[in-house]
Amino acid sequence: MKFEEALTIAEKVKELLAPHCERIEIAGSIRRKKPEVKDIEIVAIPKPYDVGLFESGIATVVNQWEKVKGELPCKYTQRILPEGIKLDLFFAERDNWGLIYALRTGSADYSHHILASGWVFQGYRSESGYLQIDGERIVVREEEDLFKLLHMPYLEPEKRNC
């Protein structure tokens, strides 16, 4: 799908989900402004919600879309939007937003070869959506915090390719 069409759909999804989120942003290839987009990636910090018989909050929107994987509540769910494109929806928390948002912005090669190898080299490990060192959970609230932690200059999303 062309960038412009995918962006329009992603913005519509973001608008539908935003009332149910503390924070929500478009990530992935749309954020990197790639001319061709295969899926829509969104990172969100949802407000409290319920699932099941008495659904509330973000579940009332997300569960309208065909599920591929990830039953709410979860850290990740993949859905098929009515327009036929896949939605990868990643859930973060305030203290790991920067890590999740950076990783899900990608590219996959950049996240794996540059970011992940950078934190492994410095003794960090990733567990349950957080970086840890010596058993201590590291707070990464913004992307810039991750780059500083890794002693790397901040790189604009459009330049995050290997």
Automatic annotation (TrEMBL):
* Top-level division of the source organism's lineage: Bacteria
Q: Which residues form the DNA polymerase beta thumb domain?
A: 130-161
Molecular function via GO: nucleotidyltransferase activity
Q: Which UniProt keywords apply?
A: Nucleotidyltransferase, Transferase
Listed Pfam families? DNA_pol_B_thumb (PF14791)
Q: Does the keyword Nucleus apply?
A: no
| InterPro entries to which the protein is assigned, alphabetical | DNA_Pol_thumb_sf, NT_sf, PolB_thumb
Protein's recorded name: DNA polymerase beta thumb domain-containing protein
- Taxonomic classification, please? Bacteria, Pseudomonadati, Bacteroidota, Flavobacteriia, Flavobacteriales
